[in-house]
């Protein structure tokens, strides 16, 4: 029996890569039905697929399930990100009952207006130093390969749970360059200038839901390392979901607060840039 919510927001699925946690995403989609489904960028990873295509049956089922939900009356929006930026050439059209849009202003059930966008336009590396972003993407894929062997060792040692070396490395890099806090502030400033109440984005693979400079900042996270999503309940309340194989559990306030403090902590030797996802 699925839980019915008003809206579901997912981002950074990276279909077509070995890092994609398609099986866990399927579990989540089966558990939550909605009136609106927002795919907030980097759903398909065309960058990685130029080098190697890793398309599993589970990934194929994810696509089929999303198309089926659109056919059955769910309003589905696809907002391209930088990894599936080729689709931006087709913004404004619909395919398979899915609306392809650059961004969307979503009115919550409580009347608040949220800008929904991927967010890569606020990443200076992605915008102005694409070669660095691509290099970082290649390095990340190698970490994913190493993580396959680490996962095997953990299973042999009966160590429970899933741990991602790539996710750990990315968090450390982002903290070292103080990128997350800069990204959040830049997004919040742009949203405030447009007179909106909040923003729901993705891109940086750091799930969050808090106030930034007077704006409700919400990040969907990803389905590579953290397996997180945002749901809107019928009263307009937003909830950050961390999906586990045993079910869905909200991220505790203590963990969310600690991650946020770490991400915004200044580092004396920090550089303003970062390596891309």
Structure description:
There is one protein chain. By secondary structure, the protein is α/β, with parallel strands linked by helices. The protein has eight helices and 13 strands. It has helices spanning 22-31, 46-49, 57-71, 124-128, 130-156, 165-176, 179-193, 253-264, and strands at residues 3-10, 32-39, 75-78, 94-95, 98-100, 104-107, 113-116, 198-201, 208-212, 215-219, 228-232, 238-244, 247-250. Helix 1 packs parallel to helix 3 (57-71) and helix 5 crosses helix 6 (165-176). It is globular and about 50 Å long.
- Sheet with the most strands? 8 strands, mixed
Given the helix and strand composition, which structural class is it? alpha/beta
Beta-strand share of residues: 15-25%
Radius of gyration: 18 Å
- Spatial gap, N to C terminus: 35 Å
Q: Give me the number of helical elements.
A: 8
Taken from the alpha-carbon principal axes, the silhouette is globular
Share in helix: 25-40%
Which parts are unreliable, with pLDDT below 50 for 5 consecutive residues or more?
128-134, 174-178, 245-256, 266-277
Q: SSE order, as H and E?
A: EHEHHEEEEEHHHHEEEEEEH
Mean pLDDT: 80
Question: Could you give the order of strands across the largest sheet?
Answer: 4-5-3-2-1-11-12-13
Q: What is the count of β-strands?
A: 13
